[in-house]
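Please, structure for the following, as tokens.
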Amino acid sequence: MTAELIERARAGDGDAFRELTEPHRGELHVYCYRMLGSFQDAEDALQETLLAAWQGLAGFEGRASIRTWLYRIATNRCLNARRAASRRPAQQWNIPDVAPPEPTRLGGVVWLEPYPDALLESGPETRYERTESISLAFVTALQVLPPRQTAVLILRDVLGFPANEVAGMLDSTVDSVNSALKRARAGLERRRPAPAAATPSEDPIVARFARAYESGDLDALVALLTDDVFVSMPPMPLEYQGREVVARLFAGIFRAGRRFDLVPTWANGQPAFGAYLRAPTGVRHGVGLVVLTLTGDRISAMTRFDDVPLRWFSLPPSLPAAR
């Protein structure tokens, strides 16, 4: 059946090509996202991959599966994108009437974007559990590794491709792949935090966070945070670590009278909220997404994404005035 589809696709049958590639489309998109850290960049890389596959199908010799061949193309497109470094530029602080405290440090992965859980499919993850392999901490750490090391680690440790297939995708040798994997593992362990401890029940914590955030209750919010809580705000490079400085950050936001309504969703296997700023007219305008990382019964990280299209998460751009 696959051979027949290939022949039809080579003859220009678009339906046959879609039947060949559609089963792999979702996992390829997630792969491109892990490689690039950006939902939009992953969309672009996937489209380029499918176009290149359509145009290059005549050269497919069948020595590897269609899936492996598509991953080879996607890997090359993602490596090109990372070398081009045409990422979202950093933005300046843009919250009116709020002066931010001095940041703990300036982050370098300002192009990071969240990934909707609704688009995630069960996949062949091996060394890393599914939730960990799509978490914001993991994806952020991948962005700091050299591009080829990133590709090798994802293909070998997350997706479980054998070393010889990865070598073929990269026009490399098995020894080179194994060496790159060793360096990538070491680099990743230096940069990513330890996996979060199990949370007995996240629903009460998430609900308490929503109540505190919507009411501007600083004490209630701070009580939910770990001592070393980490807050980042892509594409703004400001990063804050520690309960005291994070409390000062939100004190300034709440003092300015900014109030939000939160609509729950999920991103990167983590609880998240669409954030809607209450306007004087009563209409609530979507201003971004807040993603929580939970450790035990506390919040250990918060990532506030600015200018993220809420439609990615099936959320409306605004909410009507509350009655």
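The chain has a mean pLDDT of 91. Residues 144 and 153 are 13 Å apart (CA to CA).
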